[in-house]
From TrEMBL:
Coiled coil: none annotated. The chain crosses the membrane at residues 32-55. Belongs to the UPF0057 (PMP3) family. This is Putative stress response RCI peptide. The keyword Transmembrane applies. It comes from the Eukaryota. Its main location: membrane. It is found in: Membrane. It comes from Aspergillus ibericus CBS 121593. GO terms for cellular component: membrane. Keywords: Membrane, Transmembrane, Transmembrane helix.
Length: 57
C-alpha cells in the first residue's frame, strides 16, 4: 500500500497525541479505546500502537 500525505500527517499526530492518529485512521471504535488506555499507561505504548494501526491499515 503506498504512503500518502495523509499518512505522514497521521504519523505526526500519533507522535504528539497517539489517540488522535488512531482516530483519524480508524474512527471511533475499539482501536481508539485500546489506544487511549495504552496512552494513559504510558506515552510510548500508545505511540507504538498508533504506528501499528497506521501502518496496518
Amino acid at each position: 500500500m503506498p504512503f500518502t500525505a495523509s499518512d505522514i500527517c497521521k504519523i505526526i499526530f500519533a507522535i504528539i497525541l497517539p489517540p488522535l492518529g488512531v482516530f483519524l485512521e480508524r474512527g471511533c471504535g475499539a482501536d481508539l479505546l485500546i489506544n487511549i488506555c495504552l496512552t494513559i499507561l504510558g506515552w510510548l505504548p500508545g505511540v507504538i500502537h498508533a504506528f501499528y494501526i497506521i501502518f496496518k491499515y
